[in-house]
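Q: What would this complex look like in 3D?
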Amino acid sequence: MILHTVNKSPYRSRQLLNCLARAKAGDRILLIEDGVYGLNWSDNADDIASALALPLQFYALLPDIQARGLMRLLEDSAAMTLPCQAISDEQFVDLVVEADNVISWY
Amino acid sequence: MKFSIVILGAPYTDQAAETAYRFAAATLARGHSIYRLFFYHDGVHNASELLTLPQDELQPARRWRDLIQEHQLDAVVCIAAALRRGVINDTEARRFDKPAHNLGEGIKLAGLGELLDAAHMSDRLITFGATS
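A: Here is my prediction, written as structure tokens for the whole assembly.
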């Protein structure tokens, strides 16, 4: 299993799309920094649908969600178009330990 | 588990160095070890002792230095990336006839071989990339 980190907003960069195009079944995607704007990514319905059809697990770094005032998305599943589990920095470390390798998309 | 961390972003330009710092601290908090911190590209600016901030602001360079000293971490700045950005130690400053040096204590100037070594010797290598 590969852990992919994405640190750019999908509104400004294609890195999340590039990552999704290359992720394999069972991989994990962690949104960090401006990547957490992917939580309510809304202008690419087809891409989101195809991403959600893959057996991938999505995570987002909680301190980065908090820093951007996006906490309300965690309580509103309708607004969170890319359903992610919010994790701490320590849980980020755990994900890296559990993965065979990490690919950083930046 | 042994980790190595590659930092590519300068302080204040983007968040890469901040995220890398938080990750490094979390790695140690989880009981893992850090084999090497490797500052590369614009990440070399994190190693400058001459970063001067208002006292009530976060001090990124000092924070790295404190973490490195407290945990006796191996910290390397890529020499080719550093010299061209004006991050230089005493030896190199004398060699190139420069009036000052600014590399933080406990941080080494070395080549990319140290990055290959870190990739080979660590259980995990993780890169924190810059915005541009």
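A: To summarize the key features: The helical segments of chain B are 16-29, 60-70, 79-83, 90-95, 113-121. The beta strands of chain B are 2-7, 33-39, 75-78, 107-110, 124-128.
Q: Very helpful, thank you.
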